[in-house]
Amino acid sequence: MSATDLEADLTEDERRGLELIRETRGIHQSDFWKQLDIGSRKGSRIAERLAETGLIKRSDTVYEGHNTYFLEPAARDLEFSLLMAGDMLSPYIGEEEIDPKSDAFSQWLMNLAYDEY
Amino acid sequence: MAFEDLLGDPVIQKYLHELVGPTGMPVAAAPPDGEVTDEELAEELGLELNDVRRALFILYENDLATYRRVRDEDSGWLTYLWTFEYDNIPENLEEEMHRLLDALEERQEYEQNHEFYLCEVCSIRFEFGEAMDFGFECPECGSPLESMENNRLVDAMNRRVGELREELNADVTG
């Protein structure tokens, strides 16, 4: 099923939760339910369901001294253009090894410094 | 055609092009719905069978295509039925963002902890130690090597490192 179809199946609260995670680009679960103004158990269920569908990622973390989860958008929502410098793609794509001093990477960095910014 | 939303992203187009090259691009850019054989693709796209196979194999190596082998009962020949798995593209690019971030952070340290000298004629850059070994003269053309600021490069790197760390939530999830 495509991401759009999955989203169409969400309940109203789940949709609000997904929007919040996308807007914040990442949020701790303990802040998530508070911001949605729902209970912690309901917040947890929503986060679990969103993670099951693959619409978000959910990972263990410690936050303000408590075990909680960090909720962030799925990979498909990432800003892939950060791989670009000017019109050049990261030179490591298709390469096994990363050599931070390679000429190709120097060229990429020059593009970044003089074209992009 | 499938995966139109993903293929509408110019970065994804560039990514596929980088993997399969210009000859493989017609294969990579137009994934059909469901299963397809290499021969069907070659005929449909008007390409050499070898070019189609090469592109499919590269996609397979990058988790972007899978195949299933079926034996034809009459001829006994094996047919490969291919499926494009472009749902994996976002995860692959996320991984590339992490790799790029690692490279930037390593390079950042090198740029900040070294002094550089430049031959303005040949546009070649030397580390301080190298420049000293050459007596501050370009080994190619003999021009004097000039001390070179790399602030602009370092600023650009700092900025992109910050953007990547934030986008990947690197401070929270490592």
Automatic annotation (TrEMBL), chain A:
Name of the protein this chain belongs to: Transcription factor
Source species of the chain: Haloprofundus marisrubri
Lineage, broadest ranks: Archaea, Methanobacteriati, Methanobacteriota, Stenosarchaea group, Halobacteria
From TrEMBL, chain B:
GO biological process per UniProt: regulation of DNA-templated transcription; transcription initiation at RNA polymerase II promoter
Extent of the signal sequence: none
Top-level taxon of the source organism: Archaea
Recorded GO MF terms: DNA binding
Entry keywords, A to Z: Coiled coil, DNA-binding, Transcription, Transcription regulation
Coiled coil ranges: 93-120
Xref: InterPro entries: TF_E_archaea, TFE, TFIIE/TFIIEa_HTH, TFIIE_asu, TFIIEa/SarR/Rpc3_HTH_dom, WH-like_DNA-bd_sf, WH_DNA-bd_sf
Residue ranges annotated for the HTH TFE/IIEalpha-type domain, each copy included: 8-90
Domain notes: The winged helix domain is involved in binding to DNA in the preinitiation complex.
The protein's assembly and partners: Monomer. Interaction with RNA polymerase subunits RpoF and RpoE is necessary for Tfe stimulatory transcription activity. Able to interact with Tbp and RNA polymerase in the absence of DNA promoter. Interacts both with the preinitiation and elongation complexes.
PANTHER family linked to this entry: GENERAL TRANSCRIPTION FACTOR IIE SUBUNIT 1 (PTHR13097:SF7), TRANSCRIPTION INITIATION FACTOR IIE, ALPHA SUBUNIT (PTHR13097)
Sequence similarity: Belongs to the TFE family.
Function field: Transcription factor that plays a role in the activation of archaeal genes transcribed by RNA polymerase. Facilitates transcription initiation by enhancing TATA-box recognition by TATA-box-binding protein (Tbp), and transcription factor B (Tfb) and RNA polymerase recruitment. Not absolutely required for transcription in vitro, but particularly important in cases where Tbp or Tfb function is not optimal. It dynamically alters the nucleic acid-binding properties of RNA polymerases by stabilizing the initiation complex and destabilizing elongation complexes.
Protein name according to UniProt: Transcription factor E
Organism: Haloprofundus marisrubri
Record gene name: tfe
